[in-house]
Amino acid sequence: MKVLTILSGKGGTGKTTLSASLAVLLAKKKKIIVADCDADAPNLGLALGLFDKNFLSWQKVQTNEKAVLDEKKCEGCKKCLEVCNFGAIGWNNKKNKPIFNSMLCEGCGSCMLICPNNAIKLVKVKNGKVGIANSKYGFKFISGQLKVGATGSGKIVSLIKDKTEKLGKKEKAEIMLADSAAGVGCPVIASIQGSDYVIAITEPTPSALNDLKRALRTVEHFRIPYGIVINKWDLNKNFSKKIEEFAEKYKIPILGKIPYDKQFVNALVNLKPIVVFDKRFEPIFTKILSKLKIK
């Protein structure tokens, strides 16, 4: 099973729109499985017309830990307070004991390691959920969501990918398509690991190009081949030319250019991929697929 990942350096460049349309077109010719790897803001399901009620099951997951204090063992040395880099530990002057803020704790374990009395331990917490649905376009869809105020989205993405890969092999899928989170953080790193090809989508703005370059450095670190799609290219043709020059300089293939059109907004409002909502745009996405170095 080949893994194709859709990536963007910043949010709002059209990554989910691209993912939804490519998934629909791929499903017409191959057996595929699709994963939404943006656990912080999963919306690929909505673009495919899926709601919570469409999911076969939701499984609560524990991929993160929080520090918990055993007050009986604590002697008030303040070493944990000094070592915490997240501001998650306060101090109770009356008790002469630390106070742990679970909303700020990242579960790194530094406080536990430095405590001389073993008064601190890490406890697993439920920080999200993962679900499976059958899309109306002939493929299974896996998504996950980080609990509000919780941390550990990167670990949830790893779990989503693991479940998708196992289900994909069971279903004898030929391609796994993953819609990554935006940026270069832990969820993105978890998304692109193990990919066979990455499609990086951008738009003709300075911030989008700058963030694209950062994202591509992350892809290059894992030595994964990639190509670029320019969305809304006709809104700023001069800057689109700069992106093309950047791609030419570093020998990066331009897989396609998507024009600006209000129909893309209408498609999202109607919870349909653009290639389903308006057939006129299908050739653009078909051309992108034809240029992929993935079989």
Strand order of the largest sheet: 3-8-9-2-10-1-11-12-13
According to DSSP, the number of beta strands is 13
Low-confidence stretches: none
Identify the CATH homologous superfamily of the largest domain: P-loop containing nucleotide triphosphate hydrolases
Task: Tell me about the largest β-sheet.
Answer: 9 strands, mixed
Q: The CATH topology of the largest domain is what?
A: Rossmann fold
**Tally of DSSP helical segments:** 11
* Helical/strand content category: alpha/beta
Helix content: 25-40%
Indicate the CATH architecture of the largest domain: 3-Layer(aba) Sandwich
Radius of gyration, whole Å? 22 Å
Encode the helix/strand succession as letters. Answer: EHEHEEHEEHEEEHEHEHEHEHHH
The general outline is elongated
Features:
elongated, 2 domains, 295 residues, Rossmann fold
Explain this structure.
With 295 residues, this protein is of the alpha/beta class. 35% of the residues lie in helices and 27% in strands. The chain folds into two domains: 2-62 and 128-290, P-loop containing nucleotide triphosphate hydrolases (Rossmann fold), CATH 3.40.50; 64-125, Alpha-Beta Plaits. The protein has helices spanning 15-29, 44-47, 79-83, 110-114, 153-170, 186-192, 206-221, 237-249, 262-269, 274-277, 282-290, and strands at 2-8, 32-37, 55-61, 64-69, 89-92, 97-100, 120-125, 128-134, 140-146, 175-182, 197-202, 226-231, 254-258. It has a nine-stranded mixed sheet with strand order 3-8-9-2-10-1-11-12-13, sandwiched between helices. The protein has a two-stranded antiparallel sheet with strand order 4-7. Helix 1 crosses helix 11 and helix 5 packs parallel to helix 6.
